[in-house]
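Protocol step 4 of 6: structure prediction from sequence.
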Amino acid sequence: MAVSSAGLLLYRHAPGGRAEVLLGHMGGPYWARKDDGAWSIPKGEHGPDEDAAAAAEREFTEELGHRPPAGPSLELGTVAQRGGRKQITVFAREGDFDPAALRPGTFDLEWPPRSGRTQAFPEIDRVAWFDLDAARRKLVAAQVEFVDRLAARLPGP
């Protein structure tokens, strides 16, 4: 059975008209020393009865600690990940977000492994704006398709 996930890819137009997207660096000890391939679109799982667009907004709020900017969304479709076990649907919305305003949600993990101690880690430990070429390098590979889909829908250079 596939797990459904939904995310919101915030974008803005930087000086010169080039598009930038807001990505979150995945939190926790596994990702701490990784950069390229360690960033994600703010997203999370949702149940079969929850609307994907509503789930994307909820997950943005949970992961960044702020509601997303108001406005219309572009549906960027769905991509299968992990051998088809996970389906991610992403929406894009134009807006702004100050990375210094991040107030991330947390998750619990036994750390160090087999220590019996549980620690809380941020779901996202930082956010940053990237132009589309940099975003393709920073994102986990399975999410790059969403940047390509957004680029195809935006006017400009």
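Step 5 (inspection) to follow. Residues 52-64 form the longest helix (13 residues).
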